[in-house]
Design brief:
By secondary structure, the chain is of the alpha+beta class. Helices cover 33% and strands 20% of the residues. The strands form 2 sheets. The protein has a 6-stranded antiparallel sheet, sandwiched between helices. The chain has a two-stranded antiparallel sheet with strand order 1-8. 46% of the residues are buried.
Length: 252
């Protein structure tokens, strides 16, 4: 593939319940518009297998657009630097450019060090990726759903042609992390490789592997989002094994 992937097989921590176990989720609206982000950026994913970290940067861009927050959106250099710090990768394609597990990235993001120097999330929880309403609810509640797919080569061809991801049926070639940033009755809208692509539900049902709701700190501070037992969620997250960063990101 011309574009890079980089999501390793899903790992669901047993200590975490689904989002619906912590939050009282209202019926989601019929649609959620894609946030008005001027430039999503490829964030190095054209060269490195850092889609999981690029996905985190895209979350911040979406939250800033939705909430008016002034949190800095990570630059491409910062995104690549953070990926190098976690993996030990030095150059694109080297032995340490292996990609990452989505849940490991989320654990780091919620830990004291956070990502990109000082950005931390308040919490995260898995979402049943096979249920339309659950995916819609997570997007409506927190603006973004962080997801992993087993990507087929046809998806890259469709993306390059400006076409939606519709089901062709070819086999996956690797794991990829994208963000769902909106939906309507017909499509999911995903951010990847610096752009927005429409995703058919049949495509997602076939290739989708995992989905995560992320509770941004700015939503908690502003009282946005559904009623949630954040203390219980944070306690469950703290009970998970700590993911180690090989080097602090600022030392790269």
């Amino acid at each position: 593939m011309r574009h890079k992937l980089g999501a390793l097989p899903p790992v669901r921590p047993s200590a975490l319940g689904d989002l619906a176990d912590y939050a009282k989720l209202p019926t989601p609206p019929a649609s959620v518009a894609v946030p008005a982000v001027a430039d999503w950026g490829t964030d190095g994913n054209q060269s490195f297998g850092n889609c999981t970290i690029a996905g985190a940067a895209h979350c911040i861009a979406a939250w800033n657009a939705e909430s008016g927050s002034t949190d800095p959106t990570p630059t491409e250099d910062q995104t690549v630097t953070q990926y190098k710090a976690i993996t030990g990768c030095v150059t694109a394609g080297d032995a340490h450019d292996t990609g990452l597990v989505l849940s490991d990235v989320l654990k780091l993001w919620s830990a004291n060090v956070g990502l990109f120097g000082d950005n931390k999330i308040a919490g995260y929880a898995p979402v049943n990726h096979k249920v339309v309403r659950d995916i819609h609810s997570a997007i409506a509640a927190y603006g973004v759903t962080y997801v992993g797919v087993a990507l087929p080569e046809s998806a890259e061809t469709q993306f390059g042609a400006g076409q939606p991801w519709t089901l062709v049926g070819d086999p996956p070639v690797g794991g990829h992390c994208i963000d769902f940033v909106g939906y309507d009755p017909e499509w999911l809208y995903a951010c990847t490789w610096g752009g927005i692509v429409k995703v058919a539900w049949a495509w997602w049902a076939h290739y989708g592997q995992e989905a995560w709701a992320i509770i941004p700190q700015e939503f908690v501070e502003a009282g946005k989002g559904p009623e949630i037992d954040l203390a219980q969620l944070q306690g469950d997250i703290k009970s998970l094994d700590t993911v180690k960063v090989k080097r602090p990101w600022w030392e790269i």
